[in-house]
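Hi team,

As requested, here is the filled-out complex form for the 4'-deoxy-4'-aminopyridoxal-5'-phosphate run. I kept the field names the same as last time so the parser does not choke. Let me know if anything looks off before we queue the next batch.

— J.
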Amino acid sequence: MNTLTLEKEKIRLQEDNYFTRVGNTPLLPLRRVTQGLPPSVSVYAKAEWFNPAGSIKDRAALNIIQTAIGNGDLPPGKRLLDSTSGNTGIAYATFGTMMGIPVTLALPENASPERIAILRSLGADLILTEASEGPEGSMKVVREMLKEEPEKYFYANQYGNPANWIAHYHSTGPEIFSQTGGDVTHFVAVMGTSGTMMGTGRYLKDQNPQIELVGGQPTKPLHGLEGMQHMASAIQPDIYDVDVHDRIVEVETADAYEMVRRLGREEGLFVGLSSGAAAVAALNVARELDEGVVVTIFPDAGYKYLSNEKLWK
Ligand code: PMP
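And here is what came back:
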């Protein structure tokens, strides 16, 4: 092998290693915030910040890109376009940059400065949309861009692309089932695009229809819980099927904030806001039980929320 071929081979191997690190995240027992629960009730959380680009969305973004490449929807020269509140964009930008795929993202201008800085550092082209219009404003801008230049873009469409939830059907679901030795009784996931709940939930029900699926939701439309969507008032994602989960548990924003602080102080887990919401929802479910194994998802770590002064006071 000449030097150039060797160099190329090395890069290919590094990329392979990086991508194979998506998924297989630890399942952590919560030991202290669970105090007062009966001894036969346990609560676990999947630590999704272990993914290489830092969140649960690595799973969906990688599968969206790989499926599109496989289908011929993302040939060389096309630009990946999507609207994202941050984590999916960070994953697109990470994997896209590695694979030589240019990435354009629309996101609300009030996304946390950390998210915007990370996206810029990964070379993504950003379009910041009106804060007051929320994620829907970003979607509208993306649709207009597609109408104007359809040939230029591959529209990744995380809210409507089945590759989002299928990623979880093939990874998050099987991991949870095997990490609990098949003993999981309740699965609780907060919902944004709903990909995590749709894919993981369907897999778990296919293994055991008795497993109860609980969707976590903010109590109100303007909730400030980044990554989550208030389904009742927002435009519902096309991949969201209300019949997949058995029920919804609502979480107050203030309770999610308080739980983020408790998870840090009591469990040693430095997590993002939606993880706080997930823990509140999971504990509410656990409190109703005499026995059971409740599993939830902690979508990301706290780093992207450091500028939120209210959170860390
Ligand atoms: N929490 C965070 C921090 C997220 O970025 C997302 C993704 N929007 C979610 C929760 C919800 O995940 P999903 O889109 O799979 O419902």
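Two things worth flagging: The two ends are 58 Å apart (CA to CA). The chain is about 40% helix and 15% strand.

Thanks,
J.
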